[in-house]
Amino acid sequence: GAVVSQHPSWVICKSGTSVKIECRSLDFQATTMFWYRQFPKQSLMLMATSNEGSKATYEQGVEKDKFLINHASLTLSTLTVTSAHPEDSSFYICSARDKAYSNQPQHFGDGTRLSIL
Amino acid sequence: EDKVVQSPLSLVVHEGDTVTLNCSYEVTNFRSLLWYKQEKKAPTFLFMLTSSGIEKKSGRLSSILDKKELFSILNITATQTGDSAVYLCALRPGGGADGLTFGKGTHLIIQP
Known about the structure:
The complex is a heterodimer of chains A (117) and B (112).
Chain A: E1 4-7, E2 10-13, E3 19-25, E4 32-38, E5 44-51, E6 57-58, E7 67-73, E8 76-81, E9 90-96, E10 107-108, E11 112-116
Parallel strand pairs in A: 2-11
Antiparallel strand pairs in A: 1-3, 3-8, 4-5, 4-9, 5-6, 7-8, 9-10, 9-11
Chain B: E1 3-7, E2 10-14, E3 19-26, E4 30-38, E5 43-49, E6 56-58, E7 61-66, E8 71-76, E9 85-93, E10 101-102, E11 106-111
Parallel strand pairs in B: 2-11
Antiparallel strand pairs in B: 1-3, 3-8, 4-5, 4-9, 6-7, 7-8, 9-10, 9-11
């Protein structure tokens, strides 16, 4: 089955540092990948849609300069949280859809738990 | 703005019971409704529903969609402790936007 790998699974770092999270589709190609954020006891909220070879589309209220997205190949998207602060602490999950099967559901990575001290 | 409301938000039952989880929605342009199960990490896909009145079934789980009344239910029969999880309902819109809108989830606990 389709597998999405997300790395790292857990990050703890100091306030002010930048953190990069990778999302890879292991056995399929994904023109589009999605980044979600989940706060404790809350639902997944779509942050941005990552498009291979072009700029990401951000949801209202998500700062594009804060959350940098790069989708340089059909199997890799990265999310960089720049100058992270404690309020950025959250669970970040990516998903991807196989470009050959646009009607199929998205496949999710295992998520990255980000803790900013 | 698309909206997904799930109920109940939490539910505790005993092993062997049958549970029904609810999902109502508002959407401008509907493409599909999806159910996911989330344990500790990533959501795992359960069902995708696009047409009204057609039940999807997988083992002890089943789901159905009513596009006129704008809701879906997820049924789990003969529950087991391994069914304990958060069950998420999500909307996939039609048109250009493709990201999912999720409900808050139902936190289901199955007691032995």
